[in-house]
């Protein structure tokens, strides 16, 4: 967490606010009537993601041994609780928090609560930022189950000499990263567990962090300036390794009974960890009952009883978000949630309040298996739509669970626009009509600022300074634009940007602004513009406050997107890649076309100016794929200059310089694979 604050200073405010909240909850708890009933017993569903090159190294028995340890440690029923010194026996805490391996998935299907994912051989995961890579399928890990309903534990190989790391709620982590990560040889009490950390106390420790506890020494490096926020734990200078003898004193607690090295929130060996205090339990209950209250009401520990016939729709594709043409082809994911094989089902869908479209599916789908079903296509006019699909009569029988029959999606088909196209974000609606946002992490993204603009009242920006996760992308996408066969397309826009770090810093990862062109509705994109750091910013020095550009801190940029557009319909995406530096603004977008010389369009290639006084351009209407070389000869047949066919620039042009050549007649010879073309050229002064 300290490392994350260094990378994202704004997180300190989030963490400070969370600590203030916990202290207020603690004060309220201390003021309650002492006779108040003890906290209720709760059971929290756990999903264990085993992410290893050989996930079978961690057996089911090893997972079950860890759950048993948690239930003992969090209820003060661990066999070694008797080893707590008598002076601290009265303050042993019982959290009444129990743990079970999840019995049902987020989709209400039976599960063992154990997920196994195979990684590349020998792969280990870095703990930086809470070890996020292990928490996503796309980076070789395993996606979290709903963190509002499950406590996610990732068991893996960690790089470096680390045992585990926690990502607690309320500390600025994305919700899908909340949970704990534990080294596979420090997990449980059997199987692949190692020698010293072999009693499951690493997981006990990390879940303590998850529920709001910090290290017992306060992470102040022995300075005695910071406590752990718990009244009944002694002040302690630094962490404790090994297995000391009681009593042990230090610079912060020099007198008997000294430091509580046997507390789960120290670093002693597993065999010498024995307790949470009542104060620590109180803080954990505060977090559980306020910050993570949904875990208490989760049904994840309740087993699922499957009916005989249950057909469910769990997803719909092909008719969601922005559509770039008027034809929709819905594809639903059909899942058999019954015990009987699914051999037939009726699937129906409708758009808005329109007529129902029926599709009778037949096949053989085993229990708890899925298949994709393509439904009949439809064509829609410009508009906003809600598509709803549902199932009926699985195997010709009534559906046992109608609650999972229906899926819905919203999409919109917008009118195409033509060139010239302009947008200054002066209207209140955002994104503007026909525009779209791509915000995969559902966090900060492009937004309208109604008070800041370049020679205008408004603009759009991404608040990178507030982002707490690196390398997140956010796209602001134009409507579909029809160039109507125009020869060239140019983009102009105003930009303003600043950075938090020193712009001269080497090796830093900067916020990046890209302009991309897509011709298939954001499926594939090609980069036309890519700037970051000193090449992007308009405020020349580091700025630790939020950047708001003055009138002089805007720059007009232009991009030739002709080669990426061709003659096809297209969209432009303005992509922000955040690395937590500072705000990036854009305004006054203008996309225009230029028509090519009609002689060039007719001939396909043009030498101009002709006559020339020096520089000569060989322009091509379209880049030829079979051009081998272009050469210039004088009237005597002597070679003056030559260039290979692949030397044509992005503007479909080659350049020759005849400034130092005498006046007279020259010949430009274009050599193709199976032909040649010679064009006469005059040089005059």
TrEMBL record:
Q: Which Pfam families match?
A: Peptidase_M43, Por_Secre_tail
Which segments cross the bilayer? none
The Peptidase M43 pregnancy-associated plasma-A domain covers which part of the protein?
140-289
Entry-linked InterPro entries? MetalloPept_cat_dom_sf, Peptidase_M43, Secre_tail
Q: Which CDD domains match?
A: ZnMc_pappalysin_like
Q: What is this protein called?
A: Peptidase M43 pregnancy-associated plasma-A domain-containing protein
Family per similarity comment? Belongs to the peptidase M43B family.
- Report a single Gene Ontology molecular function: metal ion binding
Q: Which UniProt keywords apply?
A: Disulfide bond, Hydrolase, Metal-binding, Metalloprotease, Protease, Signal, Zinc
Q: Which biological processes are named by the entry's GO terms?
A: proteolysis
- Domain Secretion system C-terminal sorting, by residue range, is 608-680
């Amino acid at each position: 967490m300290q490392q994350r604050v260094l990378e994202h200073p704004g997180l300190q405010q989030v963490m400070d606010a969370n600590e203030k909240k916990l202290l207020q909850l603690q004060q309220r708890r201390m003021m309650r009537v002492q006779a108040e009933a003890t906290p209720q017993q709760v059971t929290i569903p756990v999903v264990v993601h085993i992410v290893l090159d050989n996930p079978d190294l961690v057996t089911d028995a090893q997972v079950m041994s860890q759950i048993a340890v948690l239930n003992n440690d969090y209820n003060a029923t661990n066999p070694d609780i008797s080893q707590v010194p008598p002076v601290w026996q009265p303050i042993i805490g019982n959290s009444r928090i129990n743990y079970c391996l999840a019995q049902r998935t987020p989709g209400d299907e039976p599960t063992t609560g154990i997920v196994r994912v195979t990684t590349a051989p020998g792969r280990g995961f870095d703990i930086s930022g809470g070890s996020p890579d292990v928490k996503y399928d796309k980076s070789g890990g395993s996606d979290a189950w709903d963190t509002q309903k499950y406590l996610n534990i990732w068991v893996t190989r960690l790089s470096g000499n680390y045992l585990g790391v926690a990502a607690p709620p309320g500390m600025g982590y994305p919700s899908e990263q909340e949970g704990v990560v534990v080294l596979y040889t420090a997990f449980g009490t059997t199987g692949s567990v190692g020698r010293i950390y072999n009693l499951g106390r690493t997981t006990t420790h990390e879940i303590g962090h998850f529920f709001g506890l910090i290290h017992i020494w306060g992470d102040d490096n022995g300075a005695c300036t910071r406590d752990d926020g718990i009244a009944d734990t002694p002040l302690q200078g630094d962490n404790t390794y090994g297995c000391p003898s009681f009593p042990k004193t230090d610079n912060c607690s020099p007198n008997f009974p000294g430091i509580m090295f046997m507390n789960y929130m120290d670093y002693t060996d597993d065999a010498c960890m024995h307790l949470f205090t009542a104060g620590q339990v109180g803080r954990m209950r505060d977090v559980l009952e306020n910050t993570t209250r949904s875990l208490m009401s989760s049904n994840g520990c309740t087993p699922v009883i499957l009916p005989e016939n249950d057909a469910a729709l769990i997803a719909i594709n092909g008719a969601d978000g922005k559509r770039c043409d008027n034809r929709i082809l819905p594809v639903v994911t059909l899942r058999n949630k019954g015990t009987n094989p699914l051999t037939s089902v009726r699937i129906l869908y409708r758009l808005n309040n329109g007529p129902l479209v029926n599709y009778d599916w037949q096949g053989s789908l085993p229990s708890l298996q899925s298949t994709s079903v393509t439904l009949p296509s439809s064509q829609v006019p410009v508009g906003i739509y809600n598509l709803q699909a549902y199932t009926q009569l699985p195997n010709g029988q009534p559906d046992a669970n109608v609650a999972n029959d229906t899926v819905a999606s919203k999409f919109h088909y917008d009118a195409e626009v033509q060139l010239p196209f302009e947008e200054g974000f002066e209207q209140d609606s955002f994104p503007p009509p026909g525009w779209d946002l791509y915000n995969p992490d559902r966090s900060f993204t492009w937004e309208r600022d109604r008070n800041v603009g370049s020679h205008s009242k408004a603009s759009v920006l991404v608040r990178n300074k507030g982002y707490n996760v690196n390398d997140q992308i956010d796209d602001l996408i134009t409507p579909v634009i029809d160039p109507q066969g125009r020869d060239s397309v140019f983009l102009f826009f105003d930009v303003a940007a600043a950075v938090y770090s020193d712009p001269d810093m080497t090796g830093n990862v900067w916020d990046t602004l890209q302009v991309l062109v897509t011709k298939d509705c954001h499926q594939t994109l090609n980069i036309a513009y890519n700037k970051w750091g000193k090449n992007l910013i308009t405020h020349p020095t580091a700025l630790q406050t939020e950047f708001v550009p003055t009138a002089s801190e805007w720059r007009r940029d232009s991009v030739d997107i002709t080669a990426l557009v061709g003659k096809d319909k297209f969209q432009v995406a303005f992509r922000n890649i955040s690395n937590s530096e500072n705000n990036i603004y854009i305004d006054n977008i203008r996309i225009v076309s230029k028509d090519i010389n009609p002689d060039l369009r007719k001939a396909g290639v043009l030498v101009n100016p002709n006559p020339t006084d020096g520089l000569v351009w060989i322009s091509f209407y379209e880049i030829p794929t079979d051009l081998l070389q272009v050469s210039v000869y004088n009237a005597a047949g002597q070679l003056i200059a030559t260039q290979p066919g692949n030397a044509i620039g992005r503007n479909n042009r080659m350049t020759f310089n005849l400034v130092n050549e005498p006046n007279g007649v020259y010949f430009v010879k274009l050599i193709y694979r199976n032909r040649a073309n010679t064009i006469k050229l005059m040089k005059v002064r």
